[in-house]
Every structure is written in C-alpha cells, then in structure tokens.
Amino acid sequence: MSFTNRINCDCGAVDNTLARVYNAVEATIDVLILKVQNGFNLSLSLFVFVGGSGQEIPLFHGTTAESCGLRRYVIAVEMDTWLQLKFKVGQNGSKNDHLERSCHFKANIHGCACQQIMLQHASLSLSLKVTLSTVPA
Known about the structure:
Blueprint: E1 2-9, E2 12-19, E3 24-36, E4 40-50, E5 53-64, E6 68-78, E7 82-91, E8 98-106, E9 111-119, E10 124-134
Antiparallel strand pairs: 1-2, 3-6, 3-10, 4-5, 4-7, 7-8, 9-10
InterPro entries: DUF6598
Protein name: DUF6598 domain-containing protein
Organism: Hordeum vulgare subsp. vulgare
C-alpha cells in the first residue's frame, strides 16, 4: 500500500509517494542523454511492485534539446522483483508521432546494470544505469 502527499511551494509542487517496502534494496537510477540531433519530448516512468500490486512512478517529463544528465532517482524496491523503466520519446510539436521503449532490471542485493538505447527515429541515444545496494534496517 502506498500513499502520495503533495507539497506546494512558490515555484511549483512536489509529490512524495511513500510505501513500506519489506526486504528492500535501494535502486539508484541515472539517465544520461548522450546524443540529440533535434529537440524532443521525453517521458520516463518506473514500474515496480509494492505489496503485490504494480505502481507507476513518474520520473521525468519534459523537453530536451541537448545532451545532458537528468536527475538521479533513488527508490526502494522489493528484492528479487523486476524494475521496468518505460520511456516515451516524441518530436517537438508532434502529438501522435512518438516511440515507446522499456528496459528491465532485476532488483538484487548489490550490483550495477547499464543499458544504452539508440533511437534512430528520434535521433537520440540514452544511457540508463541502475545501481542496487542494501537498505539499512
């Protein structure tokens, strides 16, 4: 079971989603945009299982016109479950022309997994890195 709390500030709002996760590991997710030829819209979400039900956690939604590193995301997930990173990429100004891709990572006690994704249609190259470590009890 999870719940979301919104914190409103002068410059916007932040949603915090909280859940009690048993037998958890910490997943640190780094997303790098390695190559961009044209500006594009990017939407990145993480799908995890908490208490037997799937949860979608939006990580990023916005426009990017140059190579850069996105924020680092840290999430507690149940050990021996799968993390699914799903992203949608579309050209600026286009509502119907978009690609969807997913990457899967297994939540183990320790480890690091990297995947590089090249999308020729969007002239885009992404690097995804997930680092896993134990959560102190």
